[in-house]
Description:
The chain is of the alpha+beta class. It is built from 16 helices and 16 strands.
Amino acid sequence: xxxxxxxxxxxxxxxxxxxxxxxxxxxxxxxxxxxxxxxxxxxxxxxxxxxxxxxxxxxxxxxxxxxxxxxxxxxxxxxxxxxxxxxxxxxxxxxxxxxxxxxxxxxxxxxxxxxxxxxxxxxxxxxxxxxxxxxxxxxxxxxxxxxxxxxxxxxxxxxxxxxxxxxxxxxxxxxxxxxxxxxxxxxxxxxxxxxxxxxxxxxxxxxxxxxxxxxxxxxxxxxxxxxxxxxxxxxxxxxxxxxxxxxxxxxxxxxxxxxxxxxxxxxxxxxxxxxxxxxxxxxxxxxxxxxxxxxxxxxxxxxxxxxxxxxxxxxxxxxxxxxxxxxxxxxxxxxxxxxxxxxxxxxxxxxxxxxxxxxxxxxxxxxxxxxxxxxxxxxxxxxxxxxxxxxxxxxxxxxxxxxxxxxxxxxxxxxxxxxxxxxxxxx
Length: 427
Ligand code: ATP
Ligand code: MG
C-alpha cells in the first residue's frame, strides 16, 4: 500500500458535520455586515514578506518567530503566508487608490498562518473574520466596530458579561508612547533580573512588546510597570472618553485594561479585546484597534483607520462551551427511489421541488426499500418521498411524515410538485 500522507501539523480539515457550524457562523456574519454597510473584499493569502515586517513590526512575536516566510524558487521573491489580514488589505487599498472617493467600510474572512505551538484554540492555519473602517478618524466608528461585535454575540446566542467581556485601552500617539517608553525602559532596567530572554532582547528595541508577554513569571514586573495611560495628553484622553461615552450610553460594560497593548506595532489610540474565561490561555476571541499611521507608512496618502480581527475556531469553541447549538441542518425531504424504472420521473420531480426552494436529497445507488428508509431517517429529513413504481405509473408520489409515524401517507401528483412543494416549506 502507498504511504499515507497527512495534513501539515497545526492545520485542520473542516469536514461535515462540523462544516455546518462554520457555514452557520459565516451566514450570521454576512447578514451582520450587510446591516452595518460593510463590503466584502478578498486579498491574496501570499504577500511580499516586507509588507508584514514593515507593518506589524520587526520586533514582534509574529515577525520574529511566527511567519511562514519562504523564497519563491521560480524567481527569488521573498514571500510570506499572511499571518493577519490588515496589512494586505491596506496594501490593496493603496494599490487600487480605493479611498479616492471617500472612506470605506470593508470586511473579509479567510485563513491566516502562524508558526505557533498547536493546541486547543491555537493552530498554524486558522481563520479570521476581519473588519476594517478606512478613512475614518473616529471615535464614532471605533464605537460602531465594538458595538457590532456585541450585536454578533447576541445573534449567536452568547451573553456579554458571562461568555465574553470587553477590555479597552488607549495607546495614545507616538510622542506619548516615546515618553512612556523611556519610563518603561528605566523600570525594566531596574528589574532586569526578572526579565526573560525575549524581554531582555526587546528592552531597547521595543519595550512596549514586553507588556504583551504570555510568560506568567513576568506578570509582577509587567503589572508594576508605568502605565501608558498616565502619559496620554488631552486629545488622546478625549478620544478615549468619547468612545467610552458611546459605549456607556449603549449599556455595554467594559474594563479599562492599561496593560492591553496588542501584538502589532501599528496601533494607536483605541485598542480593545473581547476575552472569555471559557478557553483557558486562548482567551482572546477578538482584538482590534486604531492604526492611523499605517496607510501612510505603507506608501499611501495619509488616512486614519480602525479595525478588528476575530478567530473563528476560537469563536466556534466558545459557542460550544457556552452550549450554543446551531439549528440542525438536513434536507426537508429524502427521495426513496426503488428502481431505474422510476428514475427519470423521480429526478424531474426533484428538480421541480428544488426550483421551488425545497431541499431534497435523492437516494442514489439503489438498495432495498428498508435500507433506503434507514438512510432517510438518518438524513434528518422531515419527509420521505416514495417513488414507488405503482404510484409513478399513476403520475403520483407518496409523501410520508417521518416525524409523525401516526400520520397517514399522502399521494401527490408529480405534475404539480412545485405547488405542493411550496406548501411543504410552510407546513
Ligand atoms: P494570542 O494572544 O492568543 O496569541 P493574538 O493577540 O496573537 O492572540 P491577534 O493577532 O490579535 O491574536 O489575532 C486576532 C484573533 O485571531 C485572536 O484574538 C484569536 O482569536 C485569533 N488567533 C490568533 N492567533 C491564532 C492562532 N494561532 N490560532 C487560532 N486563532 C488565532
Ligand atoms: Mg499570538
